[in-house]
């Protein structure tokens, strides 16, 4: 790779901000080429990065060029951050190197590694996006820009600034999924080093991580990042409960490991007897997932089924089902605790067989069975699919289809202007709790818990939603606000003569996609129609609650100039009457 560079001026003052260094000064219009320091390009740190990258690039014909790119990216990052320190006092360069190493564990491509090394230079130093593009190409510059934090975002409130950051992240992420991989690795290292922050900053970052980044890692199937983000956040947000579960698990560790060893030994013997080669290991349990199950099911730690867990990795899909039959022949399965994610993969691309059996003593033990390729996807999610795409030089159609939900988030850029509603919609659509329902043709649809047939209809297609007049679940009629449950078959009833969606649907739909489609439909109506409908909806909501508030006062609290604007906003779906009144009484 050819890199043209002169030393880029960098910010000279070290940071005292726990989160990050000071912002760079405005870049000059002229693009000054960057020149990496040859000494840093051949430093031990650069050597280590190149060695780790080369370990999984045996068939890369462009390896020499790619390793030169990584060396140059490291050298430029080192120069740009050379005067900056982390809150812990460590050199700031340690952070981008750690982020790059996390992506090397995911075995990502050279541009992702370069972007990881450079991900803070545009925001925190004098290096510009144009310089990055000139030195490394537009793709790396695009990735760097996608993960650049917007601390200088022009917003009226911190909440709105946060929304702007989320919106930009998701727009960039939908365009190139590698953006979020760098972002997640960035957050992972920040959580690992969070002890240097003030307590208030720790709490804020932990809450944001648990609400946004861990669920996002879940939806993208990157389990090794998801688990760590969850446990680290939970330890800060609820230290007493974290320690309680941690101590309870530690007290039983020796006994648990002995039982797992016996299960593995018996299962391996049975599989060997049938000629099935398998890698069988105990599966580590994560404290936050145990806590969530205790809360969700209202049970104690002793009643959580999968404290004992075994993972079986075999060669083929056929071996998966044969191994399942063998396990069920050895130990009785627990009713209702079997899931076939091979035949019905999750939208995060996860595939595996899950079953829970009762081992001697009546103790439940969860068994997961999958192939090696499924295991790669289970651990690395979207990163594994990206490697597949890169390695074979063509797009994976199923991979692209499964990312449709992600690209749909672009709609938030133009449809959600209310800060709190944006954040709530974001949380709703990426939260861990999902229901898995089926179309009549057997396709699995992943929706947030609490979703309705209307959410399902709009997930299928906007026109299906607009023409929806009813729904059947498991072949029986249900109301449109019925909350779907996993395993149900949903059939949407439509008519060409439908007058469009109902404004009332905004009171019960769960997904941002459905909400946005409904809003867009009503925004296209005439203003006088929206005003009349909005007034009617607001009057009904006030009457329902037995409240009497002047419309002028509500308009003032809503931040609009006139009651006509208030009615029009409600009628077009920009805000629901219920949400508005709830804010007033809160």
UniProtKB/TrEMBL annotation:
Pathway: Purine metabolism
TGS domain boundaries: 433-494
Any one Pfam family match given in the protein's UniProt record, by short name: RelA_AH_RIS
Residue span, HD domain: 92-191
Region annotation Disordered: where it falls in the sequence: 1-44
Family: Belongs to the relA/spoT family.
Protein name, as recorded: (P)ppGpp synthetase
Phylogenetic placement of the source organism: Bacteria, Bacillati, Chloroflexota, Chloroflexia, Chloroflexales
């Amino acid at each position: 790779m050819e890199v043209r560079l002169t030393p880029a001026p960098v910010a000279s003052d070290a940071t005292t901000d726990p989160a990050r260094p000071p912002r760079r000064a405005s870049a000059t219009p002229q693009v000054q080429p960057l020149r990496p320091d040859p000494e840093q390009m051949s430093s031990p740190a650069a050597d280590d990065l190149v060695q780790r990258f080369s370990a999984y690039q045996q068939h890369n014909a462009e390896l020499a060029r790619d390793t030169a790119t990584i060396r140059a990216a490291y050298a430029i990052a080192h120069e740009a951050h050379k005067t900056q320190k982390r809150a812990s006092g460590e050199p700031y360069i340690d952070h981008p190197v750690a982020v790059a190493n996390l992506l090397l564990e995911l075995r990502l491509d050279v541009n992702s590694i370069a972007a990881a090394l450079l991900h803070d230079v545009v925001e925190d130093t004098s290096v510009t996006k144009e310089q990055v593009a000139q030195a490394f190409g537009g793709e790396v510059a695009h990735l760097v820009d996608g993960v650049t934090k917007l601390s200088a975002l022009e917003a009226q409130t911190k909440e709105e600034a946060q929304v702007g950051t989320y919106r930009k992240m998701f727009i960039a992420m939908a365009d190139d999924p590698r953006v979020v991989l760098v972002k997640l690795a960035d957050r992972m290292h920040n959580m690992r080093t969070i002890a240097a922050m003030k307590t208030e900053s720790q709490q804020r970052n932990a809450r944001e991580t648990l609400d946004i980044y861990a669920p996002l890692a879940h939806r993208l199937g990157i389990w090794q990042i998801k688990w760590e983000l969850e446990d680290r956040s939970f330890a800060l947000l609820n230290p007493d409960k974290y320690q309680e579960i941690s101590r309870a698990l530690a007290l039983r560790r020796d006994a648990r490991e002995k039982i797992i060893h016996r299960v593995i030994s018996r299962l391996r013997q049975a599989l060997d007897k049938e000629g099935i080669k398998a890698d069988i290991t105990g599966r580590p349990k994560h404290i936050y997932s145990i806590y969530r199950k205790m809360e969700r099911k209202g049970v104690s730690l002793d009643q959580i089924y999968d404290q004992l867990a075994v993972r079986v990795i075999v060669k083929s899909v056929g071996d998966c089902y044969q191994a399942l039959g063998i396990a069920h022949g050895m130990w009785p399965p627990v009713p209702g605790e079997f899931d076939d994610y091979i035949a019905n993969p999750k939208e995060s691309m996860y595939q595996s067989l899950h079953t829970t059996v009762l081992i001697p003593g009546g103790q439940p033990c969860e068994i997961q069975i999958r192939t090696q390729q499924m295991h790669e996807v289970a651990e690395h999610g979207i990163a594994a699919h990206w490697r597949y795409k890169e390695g074979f030089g063509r797009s994976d159609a199923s991979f692209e289809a499964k990312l449709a939900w992600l690209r749909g988030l672009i709609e938030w850029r133009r449809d959600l202007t209310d800060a709190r509603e944006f954040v709530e919609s974001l949380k709703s659509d990426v939260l861990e709790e999902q229901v898995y329902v089926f179309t009549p043709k057997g396709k699995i649809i992943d929706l947030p818990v609490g979703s309705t047939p209307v959410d399902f209809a709009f997930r299928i297609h906007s026109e299906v939603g607009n023409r929806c007049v009813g729904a059947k679940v498991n072949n029986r009629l249900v109301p449109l606000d019925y909350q779907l449950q996993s395993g149900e078959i949903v059939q949407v009833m439509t008519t060409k003569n439908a007058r469009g969606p109902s404004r009332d649907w905004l009171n019960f739909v769960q997904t941002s996609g459905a909400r946005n489609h409904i809003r867009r439909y009503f925004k296209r109506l005439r203003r006088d129609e929206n005003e009349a409908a909005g007034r009617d909806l607001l009057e009904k909501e006030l009457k329902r609650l037995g409240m009497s508030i002047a419309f002028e006062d509500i308009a003032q609290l809503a931040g609009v100039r006139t009651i006509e604007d208030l009615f029009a906003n409600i009628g077009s779906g920009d805000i629901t009457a219920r949400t508005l009144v709830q804010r007033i009484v809160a």
